[in-house]
Design a protein that fits this description.
homodimer; Rossmann fold; 3 domains; 18 helices; elongated
Chain lengths: 490, 490
């Protein structure tokens, strides 16, 4: 640790996230391994750059020759992926540095996280090589996922190539791959994701600073187990949160959690109370788990950057209205009752009896025509207090109608019409429409419903309508928006 | 309301829940309607009794003749389903009573929930007929679902015919069908479900008393918006909770929620604080929404009737261990660290490096062999403090392995072996094994993973291993067990 501090080294993040020539050091020709795994992943996801494979034993992998040493690579490389045994890592890293690599990700574990003297020393050697001029991600990590360049985390051959506004920094590789997959499922798109594991060199502070200025990134998310330098971290957080929303999932806030952190990435945890206070102070959004983080990121990525405090809730089924009202209150959202004249106008177009137009609006049955729902939303938006509208769609009920009609449910459920209408409503009223798509039908006999709901989600999202699975999740996500932008504007 | 109180009428619940001869009053031969809808549902689910259809216009429906009047039905009936217009309901009900029906469910709305004088009077007339000797479910409801007899709620043609221990009483029809579908998806089986809507006659108190003694029912769940007689309700709750777990979802505890309740089932709500205190006092379990209710019911239905305070958590991925620890604490669950000798024995069989054996146990990668996982669980169970084990399975990761092998993921993911091993572990150790099956892969390109996870869930459940989607949900459900049985045993 006697070298110059890494912050004085100029880091070429462009060559790290968008490399044209990369080396994979430590591919095995026999059986599965991290090196051959990442090669397979890069090929499958369609990385367009040149890939050089390295293993002293030589041979070929999927028709690509394996070079005996990094030194044998013709010309310079931008980035390296290192998957050799821990003991061989420092030398491999040094060879990559000499080949001109701006950075390297080290998948190998067996470093500081072991808690052994050998692991600690090996990690120190990695840091020493890094200080000579190559930025290191890891060790004990899954690396970088960057949809634009086609770099992907180790277990991510099938992640999306579509870029989007959300960046993710993670001390956990498992969390990174789970978030990337969850994001793909719910329509969340990423700019850059970095699983940095032990964070021997590049870690939260520098990466945060980079993302703060990164034009591709509009929302920053983090999974943090512990930070190397608390003061620098909170400074970086504060600076970041002034520019864009920062969502933090801090793991290890319980006693047992802190113990688990220790053996996972050898970080120091910190008390629940202190973290909460610090995150609040820098106007970061704190979430408790991966689903909540995904949903918050979705809301920040898709909704306008402002708080929404008074909302309307529309849905098929009175209990849903009741549930909406109950769930909204803890998040500081109110569902103001409409004035009687407006109620009458809404009632006039809803099916009777059974419906209720007071806000929440109960549209009484799941098969109300999309055109009618559009009119109801347009009317509800006339209440000047309403800032955002939530529509709880019971599309799964079309399964019964489809069965009676002898048609596939995906052809019967009117999600295309709904998406077009809701988009128009949002545009004409200037008030976002949020859709909740609960699906109680998801067993083996309802895989067709699962597919239809996935199609509906994609269609709504393509029309700029954000979709959540459960009402409670939508309200919580909007609550996060209010906390972040509410603090800002006050 | 001047007739004798209904409690002095002997109610033949057997003939209501298991009718042999039923009438559907108000079938329409033209287009969809509640009457023809329920006929279709009963046929589809395979109700084995005789069904008589009634409509003054006569005709046939699906080859079944429609009788002009209830009086034309040959012989007595056990039960009636009434779907005529509100104004025609009292007379239809009276005719059913004269035909000897023990009960009737009234789908029609247009009664007290309208808030009009006409609606109130019509509901009073229904009550008057009921007092003469026919028990009424509804009006403004979806009726009864009883898998054993094949009676089903209106929108439930495809509900399960498998009976199980969970009963549900609901003021909301939508909640009933959603819970029935959710239950089918997650492997929860029902004894009886009653959507009683306005509850003009039979409602929470009498039904609770019936279920308390019902041998088919082991767990009682309720969705309540408001009760007719608070003191009687809490007496019935107390008596029920002494015999079996009672799980209550009280809707309308917020201001806006109470307003929504008023227009939904015309019930009076009640304050959040009072309900919480009352439910605690009678040792009922309070939940906040349908997912939480489903998960709590699953835990009570499948886990032994006792608290579980100290648990082990095993999973693939260190962050999952961290997350487990963090999530356990708020529910009063502890994850005690194993003693060093046990840690060493577990470490000896886990893949190295990357794993961690302290509890939470991080098995380091998602592809550890089922036999090894069995051994780890057997070892962990040796810690005498551990009362229950949670295994977080990352089966969705087998998608990548399946792709490389060119096989369907459902053939590659080893859920059958895992289920058999976990069942053996639970049997040999006497400590339940709970499985969490998170699935971040659920978009259109991962429908095969969704199917595999559904197959895995069914297989685990068939081996007596209870499955939850998310760790947080499993912990919360176990927390409910602890609250209920903890109070009981203290």
């Amino acid at each position: 640790m006697n070298d110059m501090p890494s912050s004085t080294v100029t880091t070429d993040f462009e060559r790290i996230f968008h490399p044209r020539r990369i080396a994979i050091v430590g591919v095995s020709t026999r059986g599965p391994g991290f090196g051959s795994g990442i090669f397979h992943s890069l090929r499958t996801i369609g990385f367009e750059g040149e890939i050089f494979l390295v293993n002293p034993k030589g041979g070929t992998l999927d028709g690509v020759p394996i070079l005996p040493s990094v030194a044998d690579i013709p010309g310079a490389i931008d980035f390296a992926i290192i998957a050799v045994q821990a003991r061989a890592v420092p030398e491999a890293l040094e060879l990559c540095r000499r080949k001109g690599a701006a950075g390297a990700e080290i998948f190998s574990s067996g470093f500081k996280e072991l808690g052994t003297e050998e692991g600690r020393l090996l990690e120190q050697q990695v840091v020493q090589v890094a200080r000579r001029g190559i930025r290191v991600i890891g060790p004990n990590c899954f690396g970088i996922y960057c949809p634009a360049s086609g770099l992907t985390v180790l277990p991510g051959p099938d992640l999306s190539r579509e870029s989007g506004p959300v960046a993710f920094l993670s001390q956990s590789g498992g969390m990174a791959i789970d978030f990337a997959n969850t994001g793909k499922s719910i329509g969340l798109r990423f700019s850059k994701m970095v699983s940095f594991g032990n964070g021997a060199d590049l870690r939260e502070v520098e990466l945060l600073r980079y993302l703060t200025d990164d034009a591709e990134t509009g929302v920053i998310t983090l999974y943090i187990e512990g930070v190397a330098d608390g003061a620098a971290f909170f400074d970086a957080m504060r600076a970041a949160a002034r520019r864009k929303p920062v969502i933090v999932y801090k793991g290890g806030l319980s006693n047992a959690g802190a113990r688990a952190v220790q053996s996972h990435t050898a970080s120091m945890g910190g008390s629940r109370r202190i973290w909460r206070a610090m995150l609040r102070q820098v106007n970061a959004v704190q979430v408790r788990d991966l689903p909540e983080m995904s949903q918050a990121a979705l809301a920040f990525a898709m909704l306008p950057p402002r708080p929404f405090r008074r909302i309307s809730v529309l849905g098929g089924g009175g209990a849903l209205g009741v549930a909406a009202a109950d769930a909204a209150e803890p998040f500081g959202l109110t569902i103001p009752a409409f004035d009687p004249p407006l109620v009458e106008r809404i009632e006039a177009i809803l099916p009777r009896p059974g419906s209720s137009a007071g806000n929440p609006v109960d549209v009484a049955n799941p098969f109300v025509a999309p055109e009618v729902l559009k009119e109801v939303l347009l009317l509800a938006a006339e209440d000047p207090r309403i800032e955002l509208q939530i529509f709880i769609s019971l599309l799964s009920h079309y399964k019964n109608m489809a069965r009676m009609m002898g048609l596939p449910v995906k052809e019967v459920a009117p999600y295309r019409d709904l998406a077009a209408h809701f988009q128009e409503v949002a545009r004409r009223t200037g008030k976002p429409v949020v859709v909740v798509l609960p699906n109680p039908r998801r067993g083996l006999d309802h895989l067709d419903v699962v597919e239809m709901i996935a199609l509906a989600r994609r269609t709504f999202m393509a029309h700029g309508i954000v979709v959540f699975d459960e009402l409670h999740e939508a309200l919580r996500a909007i609550g996060h928006l209010n906390v972040h932008y509410g603090r800002k504007t006050v």
